Amino acid sequence: MTDRPTTRMKRRLNIWLGVPIAAILAYTVVNIFNVSVKDSKKWQSLANAQQLKSTAVSASRGTIYDSNGTVLSQSSTVYTVYADPHMLKERLEANDAKIEELKGYIAKEDDAAKKATYQTRLDNTKSGDECLDELVEFLALNLEIDTSTVREKLTKTDTQYIVLKKEVEKTVSSKIEDKLTELGIDGIRCDPTTKRLYPQNTLASTVLGHTDYEGNGIYGLEAYYDDYLSGIDGRIITAKANDGTEIPYRYKQSYDAQDGDDLNLNIDANIQYILEKELAKAVEENKPTDRACGIIMNPKTGQIYAMATSDPYDPNEPAAISDETLAAELANLDENSDEYKEKQLEAWSLQWKNKAVSETYNPGSVFKVITGASALEEKAITLDDTFGCGTQIQVEDTTFHCWSTNDHGSQNLAQAMLNSCNPVFIQIGMKLGSEEFCKYYNAFGFNELTGIDLPAESNSISMPLSNMGPVQLASSSFGQTNKVTPIQMITAYSAAINGGYLVTPHVVDSITDPNGNVVKNLDTVIRRQVISEDTSASMREILEGDVEGQPGSNCYIKGYKIGGKSGTSQKMDEDITGQTYVSSYCAFAPADDPEIVMLVMVDHPTGEKFYGSQVAAPICVNVLTDVLPYVGIFPEYDEDELQDLQVSVPSVQYYTVEEATKTLEDLGLEVKIKGEGDTVIKQVPSAVKIEQGGSVVLYTDSETKEETVTVPSLQGLTKEQAKATLDMYGLNLTAEGSGYEEEGAVAQSDQSISAGQSVPMGTAVTVTFATTTVGSQ
Question: Judging by DSSP bridges, how do beta strands 695-699 and 682-684 pair with one another?
Fold first, then answer.
């Protein structure tokens, strides 16, 4: 008899079998719970990653406006056209399959009407090769790409993404999508992106900067405010089939991009244009080896109205070399050579660099304003203290010379500033002492960044107190030894004339979102008070006297109260002979209550002139002559000035002779009538400025022949002599140049109409006057 398992044995067996099965079931349940509930988001994300493709859509970068709302930089929507060769091949093969299917239907169909329908559909269906040929020709034509290049890209087998062209306009992308619909195929995509545009081309380029190929700001304001301007990119989600290919273009979901914020600048495009125009003229005349720059700002608020560096580049094409000489050098080199690449990088670095904030220079005599203000504030000197010149001064083993070979004699601070006397300012520096000099040097902000809202601001290269011996103090006192940036110099200068307050310069006024809501206001930031209101008032008066005392070598403009100081420094670290110079000038107006301060620096002029009074001061004159009335600061003349004012000749064409005569004579002009008519049909000159007492020739009939005269040479004549000479010839004088009011100013060789030319009687000849000797550095 066979033994049977007992109930106990069965129970034990069930337990041994049940426990593992229960454990397996529990483990399965737990994992199902984890996957479907606890970790559902994780696994859903992984599944989506396999089933969905995400493509970024660039946000539209914020717009940059000038102070008047003029667009300086903006983004427009463009499209990147790319192909998915795998998808395209599938769609083309699908067309071939459809053709074969239709042929099969036609062969089997007995119903004539149905057969005709199939035949019509077959006739309207293009083969894959026909579609490809037509698509290649269409894309090549509209994208302006070589046909062979398009075909090669569309038939590649090792990629699902290949770019055909970037920055395609909307009209072209629409044509492409319509063509795909017409052909009934897919595999070409037009994804929206943005392109940065600079409508004013080179205007303010070193301030604005530019973006890289990915749309990120890398220079200027574009870089400094990149986080505000860039916005948040959107996305396009498209589905993928189980074989990894994308489902056609129409199956997608879009998430809109959030556009960037806008910048509203303090820069005025009109003031910027005036500054850049005059800098360009100065560069053409003086040919500096190391460029030139200029800054115009409000000394009380730090608002930058204009900032320019000569040889600006076009941020629409930042890689194009703006310097003609450098461009010519590169053109003669092999593009693949190391020398070419090195010179190209140097050229890019130079043209993209903002000289006003990123380069240092010896400020020269402009710095005497700081030395004088510091000594007055510290009561190291008084306004009445006098100092001798002697044309030179000995400090330990070093002899320092005055720029002039004539002894200026005994001078107080105002006289020494007028004469720009180096020996006097060395003595003032010694009165102040090294410790106090360095204290005020720091207080005026020369050993710290100004905080301007631009990238790559450099700091000064300064002599520390520990090394500031008598010789170093002497040279520092008149603007040598220490090197500062132009933005540091104009900021410190502003503190000397605005009441004593060191403010933070700023280019941006406010930041607004795409709906116009203010995100951030950049208000005036006063860092500290450096000198007292009284000391500042004294400096304004001294600097106004500097301009009034020697108008020919300063920023003198008739009818305006202007203060200013020129500077001429030697680049001793580059040329030990002292024959390499930096010319600069800093002016402000109105002198008694400054609203505008302007600094110009021309680095190493190579023409005949090199003093700041000769090279930089005329730039300030020309710029402020246009800018001051533009900003609402108008001239005020005394009786003597009114007598010498130039007159704008109005057009009186088609006036009666009587009306025209009265109009012109009321302006103090002499009228010469030619002809027997009653109405003016022509006049010479018209719409120009001429000296008071000039003459206007009026022609009243067509029979009277225009009289001509020969222009004389005026070189070397004073303004009075030049006017008298032109009067004899029946011509008019238009005087230019900051020095024509000063004694000894004579006409230069560059008169507007060359001697010996025949011109109509009454023509205005423009003549530039300047002094033969320099009044100050």
Answer: antiparallel
